[in-house]
User: Fold these one by one.
Assistant:
Number 1:
Amino acid sequence: MKAIPITWTERNGWHSASDSSAAQLVIYFAAPAALAATDVFGQLSTLCPNAQVVGCSTGGEIAGAEVADNSVTAVAVRFDAATVKVASVTIAGQAGSREAGAALAALLPAAGLRGVTVLADGIHTNGSALVAGLREVLPEAVLLTGGLAGDGADFKRTLVGAGAPPAENVIAAIGFYGDSLRLGWGSFGGWERFGPERAITRAEANVLYELDGEPALDLYKRYLGDEAANLPGSALLFPLTVRRADEATTAVVRTIVGIDEEARSMIFAGEIPQGYVAQLMRGHFDELVDGASRAGERAALDQAALGGADHLALLVSCIGRKLLMGQRVADEVEAAVAALGAGAVPLGFYSYGEIAPHEVSGRCELHNQTMTITTIGEA
């Protein structure tokens, strides 16, 4: 397997680390501004004429151990024996997310399928419903990972493309096939819970209406104080952890992607089940960096047998982590890349949601506010 980094910046234009014309797959992550400034799909298709090209818009790009904005980071992959199949569907809206996931999974032949990486519109997708639909159809042993496309902190328009220029309302999947594949993953957060636990007394799908019988948006604004004027972006700094009232070990983190002032409600990237328990969270730099390192360590375990040979490492971190850490955001990427070790070719993006198995249950879920890593190699 050979993984060749490709980048674009406004200053330097396109640059490929080596000849990528024989690649079978190209994955790219591009800032909205970069997608407006250059024909990303067309340029990558020219550089890699034999490759299937898949990618999305971002809240920031990860290239190696560096974090960039207004750029494109991509990788061209040439497999020795493995093969890939790319598929996509158009989603009608968040209410159709589960059906879209099932339809997308059905486009990937099950025979020989080892892993699936999904990129989805980050505004119009209910991420947890999407994952549920995918799981209904995919074989249980298939590793499912991915993320929701980003738009910086604007939450206005996210784009995904598979074999075509990126567009809204698209969900794409890359299916990885073959016995030679070595796939791995790691996903950790590092956020701290604070304040009282509150019952989710009214919710529907991914919309939260009431906590402890009080309008959820009113309560949340009290916690935010002056930052309430900057919603929904400021909510990224204070996500919610959500769990069953009788089960504390399989909690997931949820991030707000929109608010409804008239209904006094909050819209999340994934399901907020009524009857569950919610609690606010906040982040500290050292804990977030440690979480990224642990994700890298977990993912590296699955590639240890490759002995330092080239393997791809897809890093999907949450835009909330980037906004909180500011200039120190590179620290979490450096920590994750250092933990991945020799042979890893890292790239990734800052997302509106991460898809990976749960660290305790092993069941694939939508996550928020994590560093999630997928490793892909060949033995």
Number 2:
Amino acid sequence: MGKTIAVREATWLRLKDLMKEEKANDFDHLVTILLEKAKDVPRSMFGLDSRRRITFTQREHEKITRDVHG
């Protein structure tokens, strides 16, 4: 049985672009690819921050990524 998730329009458009880049057949396939890639990221890549329990609101995250990526 499928499930529905809600994302903002901008997120949906980014996912559509990423689906083409990853050659995913559909969004389910794309999510599976992304989950596998995320699972393979070693915790050592996060250095000292790997043990911190920092969470951001959606708005904070968007501001940080907007500032970093222009």
Number 3:
Amino acid sequence: MNFKYKSKMLEAGVGDVCPPTESISQEIQAFRFIYEKIEDDRNFVPAYIKKPQRFNDKSDTEKCSGFGVSLYKSEEHAIKKYSALANIIQNIGKTIGTHLAQGKVLKDFGVITPIDIEGHFDLHEFDSCNLQNSFVVVRKIA
């Protein structure tokens, strides 16, 4: 399977280290910050694709993470992170969304990075992945 943003990863110089080797295909419940309407084109776009200049001075590890769709393993983890970000980023709703979506990541969607202590992981999508069809809005968070 080919990764959705492989050519962009190569352009950024992280194509041979991204996704990380410890990433695996796995079925897992996930939560994501989104805008109100699930159909909004911004909802499932990785940070690097949205704003590549944000990664100019970042490490290869951070750039690689930027190519993954940022997800959380539980609603509690997602809400806690959103609250923390809201304390340091003005207009957080305009930046990452105002709602929380829940969905199931399937093995054929791509590979996920190990889940960190904050319950966060990245999904590096395969070309055929369309997350919009697998997530639903569960609540407003901003």
